[in-house]
Amino acid sequence: MTSLAATGFARPHRWLRTHPLAADSLLAVLVLVLVLVGAYLGPHTERRPPGLPYVLLTAAACACLVVRRRRPRTVLALTCVLTVVATVVACDEGPPRTQIATSVALALYTIAARTERPTAWRIVAVTVAVLTGAVMLFGPPPWYAQENLGLFAWTGMAGAAGDAVRSRRAYVAAIEERAVRAERSREEEARRRVAEERLRIARELHDVVAHHIALVNVQAGVASHIMDSRPDQAKQALAHVRQASRSALEELRATVGLLRQYGDPEAPTEPAPGLGVLDQLVDGFARVGLSVDVTATSTVPGTPATGTGAAGAAAVIGPLPGAVDLTAYRVLQEALTNVHKHAGPGARAEVALLRRPGSLDLTVLDDGGGRPAAATATATTAAVAEPGGGHGLIGMRERAVALGGICEAGPRAGGAGGFRVRAVLPLQARTGP
Question: pTM for the complete prediction?
Fold first, then answer.
């Protein structure tokens, strides 16, 4: 029953909201009926009922309410004038007849509900004071009749009701705006997180594929070149290809496994690579002919000051935060891969690690395989800018910046041949945006 009643009232309500002129016309007719009923059935009508002039003035005042939304101040002025005139006309008909002031109350309500508070309250105060004073001054005596006091109270309450409605509408609009803004912010935050995750996975895939596929390509070329003349060495090269491809598949499986839903079976459980497995990275490059010298220095009290070799460097550097450890490994992996691909045959690489109390410095130098610095820089820049590639340096910079650090790459200073990559990674996460 309740739902049927609600549905029955909802349809006319929606129709009236979409047709404001019809709604105001219906309201004007309703007010006219109520005013005339009150005037004819009031306690003083036994002595003398209202005459035709009062009825016509009441009809004119109610007719003004049809345009109360379009011209609220004009309607208020007209209804006030008609109310005072009707009160003066009715002087000879007995006690005050202030029912016509209902039109003034509705006009005041409309202004208070649609005007900012300071202006609305000024209009309400002036209207109540002037209208009540005019009726008391020009209306039938006594001036302190309860109808006159009621006029003061009802017009003031109409203004207060309009102000309350305006405040309620503003409050609801503010809540709706905040809800829309919060929903938009959530959507933007979700899109930002998705973009960051896609970028992170893209960097991981690039680092894994670029490193291992470069090794596979070199070893496959060596095997093809010496297959007939030195089959034993060709078999060894193919074994390196198999090992590099197996490592690539394992890292790809671990990286792609991050895309699984939480709780999926066979989710990857192996830790992410870091400087603890730097010796494996260096050995992989050594097998393809790239000599890598690793040194480490620490200024942190209570730790070894220096160390050489991958294992010794890892011992000097010590444990690192997971994100820093992974980023350091990926930067070294990408830098050494670029040396292997672009520095030329016979090139040597030097890796220098510096552990400070609040940061980790990585520096990778290569000698360019004996080529001049200009030739090395040109070859490296061309390789980086080649279509379909060139994301290695960008990825290193993005990884460093994500931690609040920096990554620089360019030819070695002093005119020496080769290339230099340096990254500074803070050991504490950023707190700002």
Answer: 0.46
